[in-house]
Amino acid sequence: MAAPSARMCGLDALRGIAVFLMIEQHMGVWLWAGVPRGKALAGAWPLVAFNALGGGAAPMFITLAGVGTTLLARSRAHGADAVLLRRGLVLLGFGYLLTAMTPSWFSWGSWFVLHLMGFAMATAPLWRRLGDRGLLVAAAAVAVAAIAVQSAIDTPLQLSNEMMRDSSRPGGALRLALAESQFPVLPWLAPFLVGMVAGRWIAARRFGAIATTGAVCLGLGAAGLGIGMTWTQPLLLRRAFGVHLGFFPASITIVALLLGVVLLVIALVAWRDDRKPLSDTHPLVVLGRASLTLLLVHVPLFREATRPLGYWQALEAGTVLVIIFAFLLLAVIAARLWQGVGYRGGAEWLLRKLGG
């Protein structure tokens, strides 16, 4: 068997799944007109159910970023820290590029998934000095610290898009990046840190350890869910263990449940890929290798360009589903053709060129 490397097709396929889920969720929300007043939801349930799966996209991206960071560092005998720092800063730059291209959603102070992954990768030279147990303890501390900070600054139990882009409150952009934007450092650094441990275990072929950690996370999430449903007071318990529609801000329960599912999927795919690797030309693999470019393209395309064209939240559910699958099919075909030139000119190519 070939030794695990920093470029495993199974992990690329998972990135393909993650970007697929993110795109379909965004398009579903941004294109669908919703249920007309007085009409039942029954006719739109396929889109609603499909859209719900998208909640796992960002946690998958963040955890895989941790996995990839570990595998990248292990593949380099020298200069790994410098590469991680540069790549993290480039990813952070892509995050700010995305905010500039999407003014209807973000402000300059917004902190989205690319910002979080860039920050996490840039600081990875510090985190990778910790042992497995140290990283897991740090991840747990980050999740707990998130609740403490939310309580200290009186973060609402549910954040609107306007709140998550509002840098006029005390603390400004730092407040958003730390605790109150879409994917702030607290608590979303935690899945990245756990992903770093999973990367080590993939390299050591300890797939069972990844699955066990995922099961433990699910168990903790289930316990938190039980607490949140049983005790609604004091407010601290609601903040720490409550579950509501959406996950802004994320409770410990939400992070644990999503991370548990992601780890189980990673364990299964890595185990399978170790025995029978996927082909470089598999549709999910080519989609995953262009995932950063697709993320940067689809947000301004369907969030901004649809508005002057009159398609913003204006289409029926069936039409939206057709557009989603047509766009994703086009993305797979384009990525497969683009693969022939090494994705030259894309975000991934720039990340390697600028980040080392």
Write the layout of secondary structure elements.
Layout: H1 9-31, H2 45-52, H3 57-74, H4 80-101, H5 113-122, H6 124-127, H7 132-152, H8 172-180, H9 185-203, H10 207-230, H11 235-241, H12 252-275, H13 283-289, H14 291-303, H15 306-309, H16 317-339, H17 347-355
Helix pairs in contact: 1-2, 1-3, 1-12, 1-13, 1-14, 1-16, 3-4, 3-5, 3-9, 3-12, 4-5, 4-17, 5-9, 7-9, 9-12, 10-11, 10-12, 13-16
Briefly, what is this?
With 356 residues, this protein is mainly alpha-helical. It has helices at 9-31, 45-52, 57-74, 80-101, 113-122, 124-127, 132-152, 172-180, 185-203, 207-230, 235-241, 252-275, 283-289, 291-303, 306-309, 317-339, 347-355.
Percentage of residues in helical conformation: 55-70%
How many individual β-strands? 0
Estimate the global geometry from the Cα principal axes: globular
Order of helices and strands: HHHHHHHHHHHHHHHHH
> What integer value in Å does the Rg equal?
20 Å
Strand content: under 5%
Q: Which stretches are poorly predicted, pLDDT < 50 over at least 5 residues?
A: 1-6
Compute the average pLDDT: 92
Individual helix count:
17
The rounded distance between the terminal residues' Cα atoms is 28 Å
For the report, how would you describe the main beta sheet? none
Structural class: mainly alpha
Please tell me about this protein's structure:
The chain is 69% helix and 0% strand. The chain is an all-alpha fold and 356 residues long. It is built from 17 helices and no strands. α3 packs antiparallel against α4.
Notable characteristics:
mainly alpha; about 70% helix; disordered N terminus
